[in-house]
Structures are given as C-alpha cells and as structure tokens.
Amino acid sequence: MFQMPIVDLLKEGEKLSATGKRVSVLWQAPESLVFVARGREYRSEFHINPSDEMMYMIKGEMNLHYRTADGKEEIAVLKEGAVIYTPAGIPHSPRFPPDAYLLVQERARQKGEIDRFQWFCQKCDHPLHEESFTVADYNADPVSKAYRNFFESEEFRTCKACGTVMPAPEST
C-alpha cells in the first residue's frame, strides 16, 4: 500500500543545517520530484531545467536571478512564505543563505532529458562554462557535482573575453 508522506518542512530544513547537507529529497516518482534545499552562500550558476519548477520559500528570503529571452539578467525576490513558478528552459539561479530553506517541486526527468548549468563572467557577462548532466536520481545532488567540476578548473573560471578569473569558494 502506498503511504502518503507528511513532512514538517521547517524540521527538514533544520536537519539539512545540522548535517551540512544541501538537499533532502522528500519523494521521487515518475511525474513528481520534491525536495527541500538549503542555501549555498557561493551560488553563481544558472540552472536550465527541462521541467517546470515551483519554489516555495520555507524560511528566509531568496533572490532568484534569471535570464530573459534576450540574455539580460533579472532578479525576482521571494520572501518567506511566498511561491514562484519557473517555466522549463528558463536559466535561473536561486541565491539564498545557508540558514534559509526552499521547497522545490518539479517533474522527474524523462529519459534523455539533460540539466544544464551555466556560469557567466562577473565582470563582462561573457559565458564562462557549461556543465550538463542526465539526472536519474536527484539524491546524487547534481548541483554540487556541477560546482565541483567548475570550481576545480581555473580554465573553466577564466573569461575568454576579458581574462577575469572567477574566484573559487572555500568549500563547495
């Protein structure tokens, strides 16, 4: 028999803080993926998700950086208790502190779908690097993997247009 999960979202976020983990997957089903995320103090990439996303700010405040169709960066502010819808394919970067928690609901990935992560030069906005992953299990934390690949390479972090090097954070 299927058990319908009941989750205390604030307690789930507090568990993430206590363990140092970034993501707690609440459930993954063929049509639904739901997880609680803790903020990353160094987040700078734009995620391109093949599915729509709904984000609910459990605790704290988030600046959701996103890129318009013409590539311009905009920011939507999501206050505690608010929700936002992000359509598939929109490059977005949820930026919030590690003591804040976010609930994310999206469709589980279909066979062959790819998640992309893009970085841009902080000085001239030229594209720096892109990481791509096939995400079969969100417990594998693809965001952390993308960050490790990017920040461990000075070549990836160096702008080909202006020469600026994006600094690596102390820990990813």
TrEMBL record:
Role according to the record: Catalyzes the oxidative ring opening of 3-hydroxyanthranilate to 2-amino-3-carboxymuconate semialdehyde, which spontaneously cyclizes to quinolinate.
Indicate the secretion signal residues.
none
Q: What is this protein called?
A: 3-hydroxyanthranilate 3,4-dioxygenase
Q: Which InterPro entries match?
A: 3hydroanth_dOase, RmlC-like_jellyroll, RmlC_Cupin_sf
Enzyme class, spelled out = oxidoreductase
GO molecular-function annotation terms?
3-hydroxyanthranilate 3,4-dioxygenase activity; iron ion binding
- Iron found in the keyword field: yes
- Organism annotation: Pigmentiphaga litoralis
Q: Which UniProt keywords apply?
A: Dioxygenase, Iron, Metal-binding, Oxidoreductase, Pyridine nucleotide biosynthesis
CDD domains named in the record: cupin_HAO
Q: Which Pfam families match?
A: 3-HAO
EC number(s) given by UniProt: 1.13.11.6
Q: Does the keyword Transmembrane apply?
A: no
